[in-house]
Amino acid sequence: MNRIHSATLLSLAFTCLAFGLGAASPETGNAYFEIDLKGAEDAALQASSSLRASGLDLKASEERSFAAWTYLWPRLALDASDRYNTVVPEVKLNPKGPAVKFGDNNSYSLGVGAAWTLWDSGNAWNLYRSLQAGTTARQAEYQARRRELLLKVRMGYFQAQLMAERTRVLADSLKLAQSQSHDIEVRLKAGASSRIDSLSARNEVLQRRAQYRQSRADLAAALRDLFALTALGDGLDPSVPALAGTSSLPADTEAASLSLKMQSLEASLEALQKAEAASFNPELPQLAALKALARAARMQGDALASGHWPRVQLGARASLEYPNGPVLETIQQNSFNVSASWPIFAFGQISHQVKEQEDLAAAADARSTAMATELRRDWLKSHDRLKALKDQKSLDLQAVKETEGLLALVYRSYQNGSSSLLEVQTASLRALETKVRLASTQTQMLIELAVQSSLSE
Hints:
The chain has helices at residues 2-19, 37-47, 49-69, 123-189, 195-230, 265-272, 285-305, 349-415, 421-454; strands at 23-24, 31-35, 75-84, 90-91, 100-101, 106-119, 241-243, 258-262, 311-322, 331-341. It is α+β, with helices and mostly antiparallel strands. Strands 1-2-8-7 form a four-stranded mixed β-sheet. It has a four-stranded antiparallel β-sheet with strand order 3-6-9-10, with no helix packed on it. It starts with a helix and ends with a helix. α4 runs antiparallel to α7 (285-305), α4 runs antiparallel to α9 and α8 runs antiparallel to α9. It is built from nine helices and ten strands.
């Protein structure tokens, strides 16, 4: 047990080093955390207590199946007994002679015996097959939990990616608003701008600062969820995160408590792209588990049905016995026995138990059929949504390009006195919205690809 614990700690240590956990950021000098999608998946699989519990359930089922297998073979046993009687029966065979005792006050027996159920109408065999099917169900449940965990950690990583991208976009938008506000202040001093424009620009900066701070809080919450799934981030403070690789934080914003680096949304899309071409898997673990449970119930029913028929047992014993009746000596006694039993009437108990298992098997089959229909429906719906999202992404990319170009033109027009500040702010807001919408669309595509991956071969 200590070796397993030490290996786990060593593995976690290498994981932390691989992800840059707790290192100093080269840009800011504060705590640095870097993780990609594959690293998050591996860490979650290693850290999951529920997955570990499912694995232990599987091992327990395997042991139970092996224990049932042993009932197919003879059983050997040592037995010993020692007894002291205060009164020993005696009889006078001759009225004039001494009484003859039937034994001794002290008696003992020491031997070895074997027993074998020679015929039980398939009870032990069918019970073993039933437990084997149960083990198969446990294996499928383990794989299903593993897939569920992977899907969950992917969703958590995608959420953190979305919040990180939103934070980056808002940081750029805030820097732009601050630059424009500074430019307007300079123009105000030169008499080329009005006091109203100056106040409006300052208000725009305040709004962007509030949005940026909220986006960092949302990113912190997403990181907390990701840390809980992966057991990473111990000792780090993600309450005010910032993205690594950026030149600097916007002016007048809170210093970062953590410098974060994640792979881009495009990189995650590329990593999961093959899931789109994969076909639906009709043998998904959750379906296989239900089918195995149905087989286990049928085998259990067959084991119970053996109660209608005879059972034959063989036995043998070799022992040392003392005394040998009235002769006070130790002898070796060998014995053999055969026993048979056949239930005749039990008020239909066995028949009802068999019918119960048949109904349980039919119920498991029905659940498997219903689940297969639902999962295939979800897989098809995910493909439909992904097609729409791919078209939406193309539109979003075009919108981002056009709104950025429009913002640059409107601001130059404002500097020339041909446009109002309101037009500049409207163009800036549209540019921000299209960038956030693009990130949201990419994240939704990732979610659909993750769902398809969990339902594919």
